[in-house]
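At this stage, I put together a protein sequence along with its fold in token form, as given directly below:
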Amino acid sequence: MHRFLFLLPIVALDLASDGAAQSPQPPRCSPKPIVGETRFDTSRVRDLAGEYDVVFVLTTGAAWGTSDHRGRLVLWVQDSVRSERGPLGRLPGGRKRILAGSFTVQPPDTSFWWRRMASADLDHPGAIWEWDRLRLGDHDVFDGTGENLTVTHYGPTGFRGRWEQDNGIAMMIDSATHQRVPDPAGYFCAHRLAPGR
């Protein structure tokens, strides 16, 4: 009896250390391109379709309470009808929203900010390619908020670039200097997990 009780904590400790060793570490992210990446050309937007682990690194605007964050991004190529659909009907001038997708922050968060980005509804996706960038969050609404991702480099392992938080008409003013505090922004890395569909 005493021997069993003595061995049990050792087994439990061993299992806990195995679990810790197997927990996934966040991928590293640098603002500099890596070997095999080239400058992104917007004519290659379709190539971005797929599933990614994305790391966002904050460099400015921490006063908003924003910090580095991470999540799962899924991007798909839209059908011809949805790719040409805008807020007031067909998009003008041949402009298309080629990609749509969803972004799920990790660890999961059900607040409104993140919940709308996680939408995988084909008619109301949480992410959409428009104006030569990837928009996470609100689109086609007045004073929408979200995050804008500008892709700068692309390669077989994923893509990277700059991101900025869009707070709509909201702005933060420093009470000491009475100056506007910059919106949160930084760089991101999207590590490919699976090819597009």
